[in-house]
Write a structure and sequence with these properties.
By secondary structure, the chain is an alpha/beta fold. About 35% of the residues lie in helices and about 20% in strands. Helix 1 links the parallel strand 1 and strand 2. The longest helix has 18 residues.
Amino acid sequence: MKRIALFPGTFDPFTVGHHSLVKRGLELVDEIVIAIGINDSKQSYFPVEKRLDAIRSLYRNEARVRVEAYDSLTVDFALQTGARFILRGIRTVNDFEYEKNIADVNRQLNGIETFILFTEPEHTHISSSIVRELLRYGKDISAFIPQTEEQPLNKS
């Protein structure tokens, strides 16, 4: 049985920190499903199609990575994709408290286990919200996002 992990998030945008977690996660599992959660209560900067395209482009040569969007409970989507694990990253102690509570609920609901990787020190200051703020003010974000030929940096 394949060891599949779901890596959920809004990925608005997908950062070098996210990319690092996927790379390191692939050392632990056979496949990772990067799952872009659609949350109607959150206003996204990039449309979901742009995020899907950008992440798929980044992993176009990595057969062990799938990229999908979903609009259900993460734990339910994990089961739909065949994932037995949820991959999460934490940067700070505050992240740990939040992730622990969600992991406990997910385990209780469906028995799915969460494993957490600590963000590498060089990426702890990077978050999608900071990158979006830099974009709003016209700053160069190339150091904060994985580079591909097709990385969509415009909103349309």
